[in-house]
Amino acid sequence: MRMHQAPATPAAVRRRHDREIVALAVPAFGALVAEPLFLMADSAIVGHLGTPQLAGLAIASALLSTAVSVFVFLAYATTAAVARRVGAGDLGAALRQGIDGIWLALLLGAGVIALTLPGAPWLVDVFGASDTAASYAVTYLRISSLGIPAMLVVLAATGVLRGLQDTRTPLYVAIGGFAANGILNVTLVYGAGLGIAGSAWGTVIAQFGMAACYLYVVVRGARRHGASLRPDAAGIRASATAGAPLLVRTLSLRAILMIATAVAARLGDADVAAHQIILSLWSLMAFALDAIAIAGQAIIGRYLGADDADGARQVCRRMVQWGVVSGVVLGTLIVLARPLFVPLFTSDPSVQDTLLPALLVVALSQPVSGVVFVLDGVLMGAGDGPYLAGAMLVTLVVFAPVALLIPTLGGGLTALWGAMTLMMTVRLATLWWRARSGQWVVTGATR
């Protein structure tokens, strides 16, 4: 006689979702935080060479980080596509999808090298580098550009593993890469006497080492499940097509951040200094919220691939609750810890006076940011890239005129971060409408 299993209670369902979210989000947060440590280690080592070298590193690193952030769609689009195949129970097709993304990363990386090597002096000049720093910036940029294919492979392969519901391996690789980068930098900069070139070569070697680790894991999985490793033109085109809307989304977001910095610069030295501090803090909080979004991408894609529309909606609702709670916690931490961390960034009373009211606006906006990040991840996991691109363009169109009017109307940094809160509120409205409409719920192995 067959025993019928009792349906899970709502509390049991929430606990299951919580376990899934924590299992994916915590390692993802560790990997996200480990990435900026590369730059911090390089800065600490190169800083002892001299101010011109450090200035050159700052300019080159800004260019490199911008280039890589533009291609973050390699991770996002791959996560969603692979997770759907996993949900459908076809691991071979999931890995094949991921390999197409890795080939796309290699092609894009080769294109970036072809542009950067001859164009490095012009790019550095556009950033307004001084005569003493320019040569160091060009040297670092040219050498480091050789590692861009590896950096993009790391992005795509990270997306593969996230789609396979594995965020632990990226954490381990990130930690190993950070350690190797530090050792190589010290050895090549000082031991071999290569100066800033040694720092660039150390980073390139570490990046290729990380890419090799990822490729080993992906290739081993592909062979186990019979997935071809050869480049497939149709598959690469499909990966590019899926990533194109997310590229538009990313470029729109970068434009918003650049406009905000440009407006802060027009407000005065104290304002732009305070803005930089807040932006650094805002980015750190974004890592925490993005970790939940990454869990959302992987989990939502898997549910939709398994034709479980109700499960996808349930986990979406639970993740929104996570976003609200996380935002409240982060906002509270900002308010309570202000007396501790503000003096660490600046001792200038004018900067502190400018910083504090704007910081309060940022703290109050964190619950909004929490929901925005979560819904962003949910829609990415659903493969809803075209809508995300359109929504971010709308946000840019609303934000730009408001922000650019602030200096004319006599507003200060608090007004600018009020405009940033408006930007996040517009994003919340567009993403919330989409989530409520249910149009993102498209089941099946492919969207």
Automatic annotation (TrEMBL):
How does this protein lie in the membrane?
Multi-pass membrane protein
GO cellular component terms listed in the entry, alphabetical order? plasma membrane
Q: Which keywords fit this entry according to its UniProt record?
A: Cell membrane, Membrane, Transmembrane, Transmembrane helix, Transport
Where would you find the membrane-spanning parts of this chain?
21-41, 53-82, 102-123, 143-164, 171-193, 199-219, 246-265, 277-300, 320-342, 354-375, 387-409, 415-433
- Record's InterPro entries? DinF-like, MATE_fam, MdtK-like
Q: Kindly report the protein's main subcellular placement as a broad class.
A: membrane
What would you give as a GO molecular function for this chain, any one?
antiporter activity
Top-rank taxon of the source lineage equals: Bacteria
Q: Where in the cell is it found?
A: Cell membrane
The record, for PANTHER family, names: PROTEIN DETOXIFICATION 44, CHLOROPLASTIC, PROTEIN DETOXIFICATION 44, CHLOROPLASTIC-RELATED
**What family does this belong to?**
Belongs to the multi antimicrobial extrusion (MATE) (TC 2.A.66.1) family.
Name used for this protein in its record? DNA-damage-inducible protein F
Give the lineage. Bacteria, Bacillati, Actinomycetota, Actinomycetes, Kitasatosporales
